[in-house]
Amino acid sequence: MIISILSADKKWGIGKRNGLLFSLPMDMKFFRTTTSGHVVAMGENTLLSFPNSKPLKNRTHIVLSADETHNYEGVINVHSFDDFLQKIKEYSLKEDVYIIGGASIYNQMIPYVDKVLLTKVDEDGGAEVFFHNLDEDNNFECVEESETFDDNGHNIKFTIYVNNNKKSI
Ligand SMILES: NC(=O)c1ccc[n+]([C@@H]2O[C@H](COP(=O)([O-])OP(=O)(O)OC[C@H]3O[C@@H](n4cnc5c(N)ncnc54)[C@H](OP(=O)(O)O)[C@@H]3O)[C@@H](O)[C@H]2O)c1
Asked: Half-sphere exposure of residue 97, counting CA atoms within 13 Å on the CB side?
């Protein structure tokens, strides 16, 4: 399966100043345990936002950058969206592939994902970049919503949306 995993505020905002909107340790733990041991696919800015711009432990990384001279150690580098999709397809035939950002990648991947693991934060984080509003997309259906948890002073819920009209790669 191809699965997007992200957090968004109540306006579907997901980032500002090339960073996250909130510090959410419980959500980070969910991200780590969910993606650990799997393939993660991302845009270049997301790789560069990791500590020391290094790949995460115990995961295979597929990284899209438009500039062919940008090639990072320890990851699979691709330089066109088509090559990005082909790599995702190749791995997804064998195992789950998680789409982990950022904004441009999440939105381009919308037609191709089987589901979205979305952590909803019940606040306005003053975002500059936004995710597609899944509640206004007839292809997507919210099939699970957790109770509300307090995560570092923020009210969050873990939700799952499925894509009922997935486009094959
Ligand atoms: N809330 C969350 O869960 C979450 C998770 C991850 C990231 N984020 C946030 O998302 C924001 C970063 O998003 P972003 O969109 O700037 O970064 P990004 O998606 O990580 O990376 C964008 C990179 O991918 C390249 N790219 C994108 N589409 C391409 C295409 N079709 N062909 C070739 N290259 C392509 C871009 O090149 P060009 O610029 O040259 O086109 C750019 O180098 C940050 O604020 C971050 O905190 C939020």
From this structure: 23
The residue among 57, 40, 46 whose CA lies nearest residue 20 is: 46
Q: Which domains does the chain have, with CATH numbers?
A: 2-163 (3.40.430.10)
Give the separation between CA 32 and CA 158, rounded to whole angstroms: 14
Residue 7 in contact with ligand 1 by CB distance below 6 A:
yes
- Read off the amino acid at residue 107: N
Return the closest-CA partner of residue 35 out of 117, 130, 108, 110.
117
At 13-56, the pLDDT tens digits run 999 998 899 999 999 999 999 999 999 999 999 999 999 999 99
- pTM summary value: 0.97
**CB 14 less than 6 A from any atom of ligand 1:** yes
Cis peptide bond prior to 102, omega within 30° of 0: yes
